[in-house]
Automatic annotation (TrEMBL):
<dbReference type="InterPro" id="IPR027417">
    <property type="entry name" value="P-loop_NTPase"/>
</dbReference>
<dbReference type="InterPro" id="IPR017871">
    <property type="entry name" value="ABC_transporter-like_CS"/>
</dbReference>
<keyword id="KW-0547">Nucleotide-binding</keyword>
<dbReference type="GO" id="GO:0055085">
    <property type="term" value="P:transmembrane transport"/>
</dbReference>
<feature type="domain" description="ABC transporter">
    <location>
        <begin position="9"/>
        <end position="251"/>
    </location>
</feature>
<protein>
    <submittedName>
        <fullName>ABC transporter ATP-binding protein</fullName>
    </submittedName>
</protein>
<dbReference type="Pfam" id="PF00005">
    <property type="entry name" value="ABC_tran"/>
</dbReference>
<dbReference type="GO" id="GO:0005524">
    <property type="term" value="F:ATP binding"/>
</dbReference>
<dbReference type="InterPro" id="IPR050319">
    <property type="entry name" value="ABC_transp_ATP-bind"/>
</dbReference>
<comment type="similarity">
    <text>Belongs to the ABC transporter superfamily.</text>
</comment>
<keyword id="KW-0813">Transport</keyword>
<dbReference type="InterPro" id="IPR003593">
    <property type="entry name" value="AAA+_ATPase"/>
</dbReference>
<dbReference type="GO" id="GO:0016887">
    <property type="term" value="F:ATP hydrolysis activity"/>
</dbReference>
<dbReference type="InterPro" id="IPR003439">
    <property type="entry name" value="ABC_transporter-like_ATP-bd"/>
</dbReference>
<keyword id="KW-0067">ATP-binding</keyword>
Length: 256
């Protein structure tokens, strides 16, 4: 897979601090501290780290759902727009639990159509576009009118992938997108993501605690610890010889 050097997403010295409580009980947590990385078209950056390391906060920042306290986030060379509508469809996400993202009353076809209706009225052309994307993720016409409760976990995640890619995004965040699936289904979804990225050349941030999944899908790997990126390396280099002591520790913990 060819990867362009022009970055789709760039984080430059980004920090986020959360504060909770009042008075003596007031606490402050540094969720991100000086985080910098970029992701090129057609590239997947795998982001790994233990729970609470700042991975999901990083995902929220690049999606524009969390404003940083310091630093700059750029999308396609410009500061990330504050308006969700202005970037609708250009940045998308596939989350761990697809049932949270899909209206249980919606048909599969309507669920995939929904992102297209932000800027356009429903039409036969849009419906065909949604059908083509469902076909691309392995859900043929017989699935169109099914409801979420009639689908398996893997099929629901295929719908989520179709919803994310139907708008032809430049950037997709996969946040623990396969962690709730059986091992055999995980492999199917990872292969699907790999093939669709090869076809559409979107940039991707793949957030996961699953080192095997990250190794398969990612071009580079970033290791996060207590809000900081402690290692960033090409996948082959990282898995052959992780440089940071925490990376080696993480290998032992997540592989056991």
């Amino acid at each position: 897979m060819s990867v362009s050097s022009r970055a789709v997403v760039e984080l430059d010295d980004v920090s986020v601090r959360f504060t909770s409580g009042f008075g003596p009980a007031r606490r402050s947590v540094q969720a991100m501290s000086g985080v910098s990385f970029d992701i090129a078209p057609g590239e997947t950056l795998g982001l790994v780290g233990e729970s609470g390391s700042g991975k999901s906060t990083t995902g929220a920042v690049v999606l524009g759902l969390q404003r940083p306290d310091r630093g700059v986030v750029r999308f396609e060379g410009a500061p990330l727009a504050r308006s969700l509508r202005s970037r609708a469809g250009r940045i998308q996400a596939v989350l761990q639990h697809p049932r949270w993202a899909i209206d249980p009353r919606s048909s599969v076809l309507d669920a995939v159509l929904e992102p297209l209706l932000v800027h356009e009225r429903r039409s036969r052309a849009l419906e065909m576009r949604a059908r083509d994307m469902l076909e691309a993720v392995g859900l043929p016409g017989s699935f169109e009118q099914r409801r979420p409760h009639q689908l398996s976990g893997g099929q629901l995640q295929r719908v989520s992938v179709a919803r994310a890619l139907v708008t032809h995004p430049a950037f997709v965040v996969f946040d623990e997108a396969v962690s709730a699936l059986d091992v055999s289904v995980q492999a199917q979804i990872l292969n699907l993501i790999h093939d669709l990225q090869h076809e559409h050349a979107f940039a991707a941030l793949f957030i996961s605690h699953d080192l095997a999944a990250v190794r398969y899908i990612s071009h580079r790997v970033a290791v996060m610890r207590k809000g900081e990126i402690v290692e960033l390396a090409p996948t082959a280099v990282f898995y052959d010889s992780p440089a940071h002591p925490y990376s080696r520790q993480l290998f032992q913990e997540l592989s056991s």
